[in-house]
Predict the structure.
Amino acid sequence: MPGMRSLPLPVVLELLDRLPEKYACLAAIGVPTGCRISELLLLQRHDLLDPAGVLRKEIAFIKLKSRGDKVIRRRLAIPEDYHSYIYRHLLREEQRGYDMPGDWVFRGRNGKPLSRRTAYNCFRKILGSGYGTHWMRKTFAQEIFKFFLEENIKDPMRALELTRRALDHKRLDTTVRYLGINEKALEKAQKTVFSRERIINGRRNSDQRV
């Protein structure tokens, strides 16, 4: 979604501690997995918890529904640092009587899943203009690309391809647009990478190491 912003990870951690429990749980799953909001809102308790009430090592997110009744899922892990926000919300729901395996994790009105509009309004109210539900996936995209780029500094195309897979995009150009890599960003990169001062300083640093 054009215009939607990401958040720096230190800000995300601070935000998790002040969001309402339901939305802290939503962000605790959405940011480190990069799932689409439609995938998140379809989660049921049995998707997250095993029969013993322990958070599953991998969560099976519904990827899409094709023709017929076929359901395709993709399995993703949630880092342990985010588990407490998930357990806190699920325990509160259990205390309210919503403890059945088929109960929605993010419950809205009349027993239905939370609506995208309600989630959007909550985040926008707290974060301000430019933020809705998409900031979670956008944050994931920026951070995961940054990581892959550092790991593949000599092969940026591989970093892009790994990011495409992580975002579950079908086309690489979709990922490029999603990351905001456009003509303006390219011009800025060109000025930085090929600046005379940067090249000379880089050569000096290399000579000093030798």
Remarks:
- DSSP finds eleven helices and two strands in the chain.
- The chain has a mean pLDDT of 87.
